[in-house]
Amino acid sequence: MDRKIGVYICECGPNISEKVDIDRVIQAVSSLNDVAVVERYKLLCSEDGKKFLVEQIKKHGITHLVVAACSPREHQQTFMEICENAGVNPYLFQLANIREQCAWITDDKDKATKKAIRLTKAAISRIRYHAPLEKKQIESNPDVLVIGGGIAGIEASLQLASPDRQVYLVEKTSSLGGMITNFEKTYPDMRPCSEILKQKMDDVDKNDNIKVFTDSEVAELLGFFGNFQVKIKTKAEEIDAVNFDVGAVVLATGSTLFDPQQISQYGYKKFDNVITSLEFEKMNLSGRITLKNGKNPKSVGIIHCVGRDKKGYCSEVCCMYSIKFVRYLKDKLSDVKVSNFYSDLCVPGKSHQQFYEKTQGKNINFIRAESIEITKKGDQLSIKYQDEKGSKNNQVVDMVILSPALEPSSDSSVLSEFTGISQGDGGFFEEEHEKLGPVTTSTEGVYIAGCSQGPKNIPDTIIQAEAVAGKILSSLIPGKKIEPEVKVSHISESFCIGCKTCLDVCSYGCITFNETKKVSVVNEVICRGCGNCVAACPSGAASLKHFTFNQIYQEVKEAVK
Amino acid sequence: MNDNDLYPDVLVIGAGLAGIEASLMLSKAGRKVHLVENTSYTGGTAIKFEEVFSNMECSTCMVAPKQQELLQDKNINLIMLSEIENIGGSSGNFVVKVKKKARYVDLQNCIGCNACFEPCPVSLKNEFEEGLSERKAIYVPCAGALPNVPMIDTEHCIRFKGKKCTACQEACMFDAIDFNQKDEQIELKVGAIIVATGFNIYDPKQVPQYGYGKIDNVYNAFEFERLYASNGPTEGKILIKNGKTPKSVGIIHCVGRDKKGYCSSVCCMYSLKFNHYLTSKIPEVKISEFYTDFCIPGKSHQKFYEKMKNTGTNLIRADNIEIAKKGQGIVIGYNGGNGKQNSATVDMVILAPAIIPRDNTSDLAKILGINVDDYGFFKEEDKNVSSVVSSKPGVFIVGCSQGPKNIQESVSQATAAVGKILSMS
């Protein structure tokens, strides 16, 4: 096919025409190879301008369109749509930015014109190497696998399940509910957790579109967004495994507690009556708060920030639940003396400070302390600490409750391997973007919610589960095909030397290695076109569509000539 | 949606990050979105910031692609300079009346060349820049605003005061200035509503001992953000009133916390960010941060705190702070935790005020028929069920209009509200 390049230069009113000698640009590019037409126009992005371009393309049989105008940010999409309307593949288009990069940055018309000529010539050189790219559509499965049957997993399942979307909820223990089944009440409203949970569990039970697997774990997870294959191992049954397909995967595996044995001065597991917050929650839930000897404690010390220094982060919920413990204790043992030993009181959000303020009174102390050490003193425990003024103090209590840091649950590393997503700060699953993508990950179709993404309270966990539902419901629509990225990487089978460098640098887990042929293969459905593999490939086998070596080389060569 | 009686369209109120995120997702799901914004631009408060904690990403670079996507999305009807006047009906069948003020600049014709600014004879303080620079009666709030199309401020434009001025119109080469535009009333039929109206900051003048508004070089957090912004009034130079660079700066946390009765959750982190702003522009600057409790929850924030701590910043736990003028400098008197009265002299003070609801929150709550809480934020019905669900079915509350929170939490809530709406059908 003969290449017929049409070059159109926008005056942008006076914006370009006053600073760039457009006639000189026309003159400079008219005689270049393949250039069929060069025209100027007062404002190409206007309705008249768009019509003019479509007519020109049809009239001259233009096969490749170059526009010299403004920033691609402004009108790349506008001109690509014009191509489509005129029957030209939108990737056979190139925009030279002669406004922001020429006209608007200098008063020197000669310099601006010279640069405009370079950029326009560079665009023409580049477009000779453009290839048409087609949008692809692939079938997708709308069903969802949710891993973790805590509050996050339950909430996500309830939001997602519908007659046209099956949810598989996989829980490794024998029942649903997760961490909060251990709690009597939630802060700051002191609502019974069983109440919150019961409603949701009943809804799961009633929902025909949620299939629950308890005592089960994911044994295998293959595939990609829209098309995952899952294998579940179930402990309870004799059946070896259950297989099914889903389009998306939700990781809601929750958190566990830092083991206080790692810091010997807290005396955990060394002394009786030194217990963790979770052990205290369970004791309180059983209805009786007692010491080892069966008696009620007369005095209790609650130690905040256990393991915070080691982990390197604040677990957000410990101050608030430690305050809640004061309520538990006062509810059950009205004369008990409670002292909270904290470093910085962290009570963010609109209703938490009030909860703290209302949890004050007789025999309740909040002590800012550091260098805490717990020793045995007779039947009692001695808490040594340094107070705010720097002086050393000591308090004797019957019971010590440790509030340890939250850690991601032990399944995180194996699931991170299965899904290709990374474990970031503190070993928690890493989100796609700290601000804008809190529940999406580097692997499309794999989502994270709740404490597996980072320490958080119950309401924030529920919000993340609902956010995951929002992401899936808006991108994996039953009956609708998925349109993957068009500008993706391609690895040439004949040039690939099988060094696997690309597998290490791919952030999206879209490259696999074909062991028979000894070559790397790109899954074009999940490739996002970042170009990492292209830059890293030592043999030149990897190339990125629309940003090929030749396209960039020809453009740069002309621009710097 | 099978039931033809339900309206599938969604109304989103507020085009800040939360509102934009919700709109884009709904559009992706095939819903038509009406996004009502009361200013002339998109991006909300986040575009005031040069960088965001904790990875110090350029805020504009983070928001601009979202804004571009929004402006090009054909499923999203962006209605700017507008307010909600009335809402009737119920979940699935809301009828909304929107009052849209005329911009007097045509969004299609204007190419954003700014040629109209120069000839305008009116000059006044630019509110977006916290009054630290001037603007004209025809203006965009800052360079890089999107859409990059100015508006005419009819309160100050002399043409709207009876004069015959056509200066901007004459300067425009694209026939974009249209004095004949009229305010409009628009009626929308929507099935669900997302409220994402954002926040304001507490006015430190209400606590006189901070000296705000009385003593030069005592700034609030927004003012300091603009002083550091490369598209701001000083193009990013941190300067005190006499044009010099400050040698010492005091940052005061928890301004207004006692009065409001809550911790605003983001101030410790953004104060640490200010620390970074200062040391990156003025390496030898001496910084003192006066805080009560360091509130840096979450997996990534303490790392940032430790990095800042190592820059030599003086972290002082303090209360009873009082700020006074002393010669050319400012003296910060405080009680330093050990019970002793202390003081520090600095060239500049930055106050980190509490996050508060926007002024019109209770009016909008009345129009929407939803509740506000003790603090004036929109009230969630039951946060153990979902914090984005308001007291009225079909109306969802997200971002800082529901309570103080950081960008990640705002985006999560916006995304959650979309989840709620899409699972309603």
List keywords for this structure.
heterodimer; A: 561 residues; alpha/beta; Rossmann fold; FAD/NAD(P)-binding domain; 4 domains; seven-stranded mixed β-sheet; five-stranded parallel β-sheet; 16 helices; 30% helix; B: 425 residues; 2 domains; 9 helices; 24 strands
Notes on the structure:
The complex is a heterodimer of chains A (561) and B (425). Chain A is α/β, with parallel strands linked by helices. Helices cover 30% and strands 25% of the residues of chain A. Chain A has 16 helices and 27 strands. A seven-stranded mixed beta sheet of chain A has the order 15-21-16-17-18-19-20. Chain A has a five-stranded parallel beta sheet with strand order 9-6-5-13-23, covered by helices on one side. In chain A, strands 2-1-3-4 form a four-stranded parallel beta sheet, with helices on both faces. Chain A is elongated, with a radius of gyration of 32 Å. Chain A starts with a strand and ends with a helix. The mean pLDDT of chain A is 96. With 425 residues, chain B is α/β, with parallel strands linked by helices. Chain B folds into two domains: 175 residues, FAD/NAD(P)-binding domain, CATH 3.50.50.60; 153 residues, 3-Layer(bba) Sandwich (FAD/NAD(P)-binding domain). Chain B is globular. The interface between A and B is large, with 68 and 72 residues.
Largest sheet of chain B: 5 strands, parallel
Largest sheet of chain A: 7 strands, mixed
- Which strand-content bin applies to the residues of chain B? 25-35%
Distance between the termini of chain B: 5 Å
Largest interface: A-B, 68 and 72 residues
What low-confidence regions of chain A span 5 or more consecutive residues with pLDDT below 50? none
Low-confidence segments of chain B:
none
CATH superfamily of the largest domain in chain A, called what?
FAD/NAD(P)-binding domain
The CA-CA distance between the termini of chain A, in Å, is: 29 Å
User: Roughly what percent helix of chain A?
Assistant: 25-40%
